Amino acid sequence: MNAPTVGEHLRAQGISRRDLLKFCTVAATAMALPASLAPRIAAALERAKRPSVIWLPFQECTGCTESITRAHGATIEGLIFDAISLDYQHTLQAASGTAAEHAREQAMKDNWGKYLLIVDGSVPTANAGYGTIAGVSHLEMLREAAKGAAAIVALGTCAAFGGVPMAKPDPTGALPVSAIVKDKPIINVSGCPPIPIVITGVLMQYLTFGRIPDLDALGRPQAFYGQTIHDRCYRRPFYERGEFAETFDDEGARKGYCLYKLGCKGPTTYNACATVKWNNGVGFPIEAGHGCIGCAEPRFWDKGGFYEALSTGNWGTAKTLGAAIGVGVAMGAAAALSARVRQRHMEKKA
Question: Please, what are the domains in the chain?
Fold first, then answer.
């Protein structure tokens, strides 16, 4: 019996074509594609065969699995994720022990060169005994599974950049996937954990177009990691006016002022938190009054305290916090001046 297509699976779950088109419109926008492509994306998804996915868990905390599975209700994102043939995943699979490892080996054999490999967690290299599954070291299992993969998704900051396990002093010799596998396309979906729709968006891109999405310099999907959180943050106008919260419970904090002085790493963090948000679009940490900790970036754990203001030399020309605040005020003044000049120009032209 032939495996059902993604479209057949969605219809069996009660998802109408109208609902699918709505979702594809939102997803197209999230992936920085024209909304007019939604019908083509929907058509491609309906025809797509369920790809075999092998998910390897290494040095991880299960947070990335929680991110994609803790959807509120039966969302279409969740149903599309369910539509893949998830042939191996420790947290979700029913099989265990020998039966689980046999399922992984059989899936690799049956889909050699076609399966999608998801890696969750960093890879210990200092000692083979630091991480094993069924007596096989994480390093050996990754190399074996990568050989037959069509592409690899390094899911979460630990798999993408080493994450918390690679933080100093790094006793396990933790490494990201890209430091070990050099001959396969790798998509780094960073975040601790990644946003669910980012994970789904990568999967949709693969199902729809049969290729990996455009990537940034760090191997992340450009559509989701093309701008900093600071670029799209609703508190940025306060930054540009030099209005900052000094503590988490002062008047500035209550008025929603910029959290830059309280350690927000939004100016150096590339992610979609400020646009697609979390919990079905309800909000994101900055909206809840807590600064960004920069979890989607390499070495975020070793870049100083989460509540220490950024040393801005690595993202701007200012060298001190005071100078950075001055830059914020100057930017606001320059923007206002530019607006006045444009307005006068338009009035003169009229």
Answer: 6-221 (3.40.50.700), 229-339 (4.10.480.10)
